[in-house]
Design goal:
The chain is an all-alpha fold and 245 residues long. 68% of the residues lie in helices and 0% in strands. It has six helices and no strands.
């Protein structure tokens, strides 16, 4: 038995199983990105930031469909099946590279529009009942922050000037003893929301980028394995018998 054939088949069978598992993982990653970004969509000016997530979900669907094809083509050493499988792997590999590029691009673009959009949304704050206002309260509560830069950023808003120079209660560390007065800074969150939100979104993109990179490397080895099996089976090497005759 040719060692190269056995090794290549093992890699491709393993890759086919990974296709199925990776489909589930990538679907989760894409949904996680969309869920995390949608929680703070009021503060994200560039709607194209979700392009990497859409690409990831699309890749996961393709993986589910073609995982079984890879197993069958590898077991029976079908040249046509393997060729088709190679094309599939290459397309997914290219899509993952595109997602990586978009991920790196939008990581650098986050900070540019984040401060401007946050200033607009915070400036429109009119209490916990408004749509964007709920987003502000949710942001400050979840990230334990106050204001765009810090709690003093609220001094430029209509809410602050019309509510006795106070900040929303979502800025309070403990709402029981806090009334939002800025002369009691120890009761307020000290960090601004811009830096925390940017860090959160950067972490999400980094997490997704690492996952995509890992799967892209697996696809690269898969394409090499297809080439090995196709070349060996077509060369009529003496003594070689298919693994599944």
């Amino acid at each position: 038995m040719d060692c190269g054939i056995v090794t290549s088949k093992t890699i491709l069978l393993f890759l086919s199983l990974i296709f199925l598992g990776a489909g589930a993982v990538l679907a989760y990653v894409g949904a996680y990105m969309i869920e995390r970004f949608s929680n703070f969509q009021s503060f994200i000016q560039d709607e194209y930031t979700l392009i990497p997530a859409a690409i990831i979900i699309g890749i996961s669907v393709v993986m589910f469909i073609f995982g079984l094809l890879g197993c069958c083509a590898t077991i029976w050493e079908s040249r046509m099946g393997l060729s088709f499988f190679f094309v599939i792997i290459f397309i997914i590999f290219a899509a993952e590279v595109a997602a990586l590029v978009f991920g790196f691009v939008y990581k650098g673009m986050l900070n540019g529009g984040l401060e401007k959009s946050m200033n607009v949304v915070f400036g429109k704050y009119n209490g916990p009942e408004g749509g964007d206002s709920k987003a502000v309260d949710y942001l400050q509560t979840q990230l334990q922050c106050c204001g765009v830069k810090n709690y003093t950023s609220w001094s430029n808003t209509t809410w602050f000037n019309s509510h006795n120079s106070t900040v929303p209660l979502s800025c309070c560390k403990n709402s029981t003893h806090c009334t939002g007065r800025v002369d009691q800074p120890d009761l307020l969150y000290g960090e601004g929301c811009e830096s925390k939100l940017e860090q959160l979104l950067q972490d999400v993109l980094t997490y997704a980028t690492l996952v995509i990179l890992g799967f892209a490397l697996i696809k690269l080895f898969g394409m090499l394995s297809v080439c090995v099996i196709t070349c060996k089976t077509g060369s009529q090497r003496s003594g070689y018998q298919p693994l599944y005759a």
